[in-house]
Amino acid sequence: MKGPAEAPRPARPGAQGVVRGALVALAAFVMALLPSWLPTFSLTLLNLVAIAVMVVLGLYLLTGLARMTSFGQAAFMGVAAYATAILTTRHGVSPWLGLLAGLALSGGAALILGALTVRLKGHYLPLATIAWQMAITIVFGNLVAVTGGHTGISGVPPASVFGLELRSSGAFYYLAWGFVALALVGAHNLTRSRTGRALRALRGDAVAAASFGVNPPLLRLQVFVVAGLLAGAAGWLYAHFLRFVNPTPFSLDASITYLIMGVVGGIAALPGVLLGAGLITWLEDWLQGVLPLLLGRSGNYEVVALGLILVAILLFAPKGLWGFVERLLPPPRRAPPTGAGLTASRGGGAAGEALLEVAALTKHFGGLVAVRDLSFTVRRGEILGLIGPNGAGKSTSFNLITGAFAPTSGTVRYRGERVSGLAPYRVARKGLARTFQHPHLFNDMTVLDNVALGTYARTSAGMLASALRFDRAEERRAQAEAYKQLARVGLTEAAFARPSDLPLGKQRLLEIARALAADPEMLLLDEPAAGLRKAEKAELAALVRRLKADGVTVLFVDHDMELVMNLVDRVVVMHYGELLAEGTPAEVRANPKVIEAYLGSALEKRDAVRA
C-alpha cells in the first residue's frame, strides 16, 4: 500500500475546458439569433420544446438522479396553469403574481402528495402518481365553476416584460428559453454538489447513503417538490404562451409523453433532456400530419408511434440517445483538487473509556433469533474484533449498531447516548462510520465522488445554495478532503476512475476512504479482508494500525483468524447469535468453548506447524 501522496500541483486549465466553454457560448449566440431567422411556426414549436424541457428537467432530477418514477408531472403543470389563468382573467392580477401563485400551489401540491407517496417503494410509487394524476385531471374537467370544465379558460393575458407584451412567438421565445437557461444552470450546479451525490447514491443504494448522514425520505421529498416547481413554471409558460387552458394538456397522456421524452433522450444526462424534449416534440407534430395521410383516416396514431419508438429505445439504447452521442466525445479531464480539506470536528476523550456500549441486544426476524442478549463494550482507541462462524449474527449486530435494523430489545449507547432505534443517518452523524460486507459503491460516480459522499454530514449546503452555486467554497473543501482520504489509503491514482474498474482489494480500500471522509470517532469494518490476497491483507492490517495511531477506534469483523488475532486488542466471539467469549487474543485462543465451537483444530494444527 502506498503512503500518503504528496499534495497535487495545481493543474493548468486544459484546452478541453476552453473548447467546451466556446461551444456553449456559440450555442447561446445562435439561439439568440433564431427569432430573426425562423418562421413563426418553427418558433412556436421551439417555445413548446422549452416548456417541455422545464417539465423533463424535473424528471431528470426525480428519475434520472433519484430513480423515482412519476407519471404525475403534468398535473403540477396544470395546477400552476389554472392558478395563473384564473387570477389573471377573473381578478385582473398581473401574470407575474400569477407565477408566484402558480409556483406556490404546484409546490404545495407536490409537498402534500410527495409526503404521502415518496416513501413507497418499487412499482407502488409510479402507480400512486398515476392515481392522483388522473384524479387531478378529473377535477380540472368537472369543477366547471372554477376551471371552466372541459371548455377551459380563454383570454389569458400575455406576459409582459418592462411594459412590453410578449404576444408573438418570437417575443415569447426569449422568455421561455430564459427560463430554460436558468433551470439548466441550476440543475447542472445541483448535479455537481453534495445534494447531487446524495441523490445518485439514493438511486444506487439508500442504505449506504444513509450510513453517511443522508436522510433518504427528506431528500426524496425535497427533489419531488423541486420537480413539481419546475413543472409549475412550465404550466405558467404554457398558459401565457397559448393564452388558453383546458384539461387535455395536463392529462395522464401528457405526463407519459414527458416521461418518454426523458427516456428517449437520456433521463440521466442534462443534454439528454434537451435532445429528448426537442426530438419528441418535433416527432409528435410531424406524425400528426403524416400518419393520417398514410393511413387514410384521422386519429391519435402518433401515440402508438411514440410507444413503438420508446420500445425501440429501451431495447437498443437503454441509456437514451445521448448515450450514443456521449461515446463519440472525449472523456472529461479533471484535475486533482487542491487546497485544505474540511476541519476535523470530532470531540476527544480519554483513552480506554467506554465509547460504544451494547447491552442485552436482541433481534428477532419472525421466529428466527439472529442476535440474543448480546453485550460488549468498545473502548476508545482500541481495535475490537467481533468473530464467529457464518450465521453467528455478526453482520446483524453491525446493522443493529448502525441503525439499519431496529432491535427487538436491548440498547446501544455511543458516548453515553442511546442510539439504538435511531435512523441510520442519525447514527452516522453521531460519529460512527461503516463499511459493508459486500462493497456498496456507486459506479455512476468517480472514485473521488464516492469518497466525497462521506463528507455529506460534515457539509451543509442545501438544494437552493447548490443550485445558485453558493456552495463552491464548501464543495472545494469537500473534494480536497476526499482526495486526502484517497491518499491516506493509497488510491489517488484511481481518483477519476469508476469503482467497477478497481479490483476487489482496492474497492474495499475505497469504502474505508469514504468512511474516513466522514471524520468518524469509530469505524466499523464488516469483513474488509474477504476475498483479498495475502499481500492485500497485510496492507489492510497496516492501514488499520495507522488509523488506531491516528486516534480512530475500530470494530473489526472478519473470518481470517490469523489476521484478526494479530491485529486486534480484544476479541468478542459470537455463536448462534449469543456471546460465547470475550478477552484478549491470547485468552480467546485458549478458551475451550471457543476452540470447540469455532477455532477448532485449525488453530491447533497451525500452532503445531509453527512449533
Automatic annotation (TrEMBL):
Keywords: ATP-binding, Cell membrane, Membrane, Nucleotide-binding, Transmembrane, Transmembrane helix, Transport. InterPro entries: AAA+_ATPase, ABC_AA/LPS_Transport, ABC_transp_permease, ABC_transporter-like_ATP-bd, BCA_ABC_TP_C, LivM-like, P-loop_NTPase. It holds the Pfam family ABC_tran. It comes from Truepera radiovictrix (strain DSM 17093 / CIP 108686 / LMG 22925 / RQ-24). Residues 356-601 form the ABC transporter domain. GO terms for cellular component: plasma membrane. SMART domains: AAA (SM00382). It is found in: Cell membrane. It is a multi-pass membrane protein. The chain crosses the membrane at residues 21-38, 44-62, 74-93, 99-118, 130-151, 171-190, 225-245, 257-283, 303-325. It comes from the Bacteria. This is ABC transporter related protein. GO terms for molecular function: ATP binding; ATP hydrolysis activity; branched-chain amino acid transmembrane transporter activity.
